[in-house]
Write a structure and sequence with these properties.
This protein is an alpha/beta fold. It contains 10 helices and 6 strands. It has 2 domains: 140 residues, Rossmann fold, CATH 3.40.50.1000; 76 residues, Putative phosphatase, domain 2 (DNA polymerase, domain 1), CATH 1.10.150.240. Helices cover 47% and strands 12% of the residues. Helix 9 links the parallel strand 4 and strand 5. The longest helix is centred in the first third of the chain and has 22 residues.
Length: 229
C-alpha cells in the first residue's frame, strides 16, 4: 500500500527533550546543574514516560504538562537539585524546546513530495503549540494531534486511531516515526508502517511487535516514504 501520510512523535523525535536542561546548565550561576545536567535530563524523561504509562494503566489520566512537572520534581530531588528557581527555569525552557537540526528540511521535503504530515503526541495541545511555534515548523505540518482528545496516553490503540480519524486513511498508508522504541513497536502492532529513530543506539525493546526500520536520525525519511519504506 502506498504511503500517503507521515506522522511523527514530538518529544525526542522532532524536539530535543534534553535541550531545556542543557540550556539551563550553560547559564551563569548554574554550576551544580552543569555538573550533572545529562543525568537530570535522562531521569526527567524516564519519569515523565513512566508516569504517563502508570496513569494509563490505572485509568487516572492527567494532561502531559502535569506529568512533565511531576517527572521534573522527582528528577530534581533524586539529583539533589531541588531549587524552586531552577524548577521554574527548566519548565519555562520546556515550552521552547529546539527541533533537531534536520527536522525543518525533512518536513519541507515531505510536503514538497505531496505527503500529509502530522504530529501525534502525548503532549497537551498548548505544549505542542508552543514547541511547534518555537521551532518554526507550523507551516510544514497539516495537523498536530494530542492524546487529550481521547484521554489516554500512548501506547493505547485509541491514540493511534486519531490519525485515521483526521486524515481518513487506512493504517497501512501511514508512516509513523518515533524516537521511542516501544512507541514505534506499538504503532507497528496497530498497523502503521514504522521507523524507530534510535539516536541513543539503545537495544530493541522486547515487545510482541518491532519497528520496520531503525535510523539514527530523520534525514532519510522523505526517501523512505517515497520508496514505500
Amino acid at each position: 500500500m502506498k504511503i500517503t501520510t507521515c506522522v511523527f512523535d514530538a518529544y525526542g523525535t522532532l524536539f530535543d527533550v534534553a535541550a531545556a536542561a542543557r540550556q539551563a546548565a550553560a547559564e551563569p550561576g548554574r554550576e551544580a546543574l552543569a555538573a550533572k545536567w545529562p543525568e537530570l535530563a535522562a531521569t526527567w524523561r524516564l519519569k515523565q514516560l513512566q508516569y504517563s504509562w502508570l496513569r494509563a494503566a490505572a485509568g487516572t489520566h492527567g494532561d502531559f504538562w502535569s506529568v512533565t512537572q511531576d517527572g521534573l520534581d522527582y528528577a530534581l530531588e533524586a539529583h539533589g537539585l531541588a531549587e524552586p528557581s531552577l524548577r521554574e527555569r527548566l519548565l519555562a525552557l520546556y515550552w521552547e524546546l529546539s527541533a533537531y537540526p534536520e527536522v525543518p528540511a525533512m518536513l519541507a521535503a515531505l510536503k514538497g513530495a505531496g505527503f500529509a504530515t502530522a504530529i501525534l503526541s502525548n503532549g497537551s495541545p498548548a505544549m505542542l503549540a508552543g514547541a511547534v511555534e518555537s521551532a518554526g515548523i507550523g507551516d510544514r505540518l497539516d495537523a498536530v494531534l494530542s492524546v487529550e482528545s481521547v484521554g489516554i496516553f500512548k501506547p493505547a490503540p485509541a491514540v493511534y486511531g486519531l490519525v485515521g480519524r483526521r486524515f481518513g486513511c487506512p493504517a497501512g498508508a501511514v508512516l509513523f516515526v518515533s524516537s521511542n522504541g516501544w512507541d514505534a513497536a506499538a504503532a507497528s502492532g496497530y498497523g502503521f508502517r514504522t521507523v524507530w529513530v534510535n539516536r541513543a543506539k539503545e537495544p530493541m525493546d522486547r515487545l510482541p511487535w518491532r519497528p520496520e526500520r531503525v535510523l539514527s536520525d530523520l534525514t532519510s525519511i522523505p526517501e523512505l516514504a517515497q520508496a514505500g519504506l
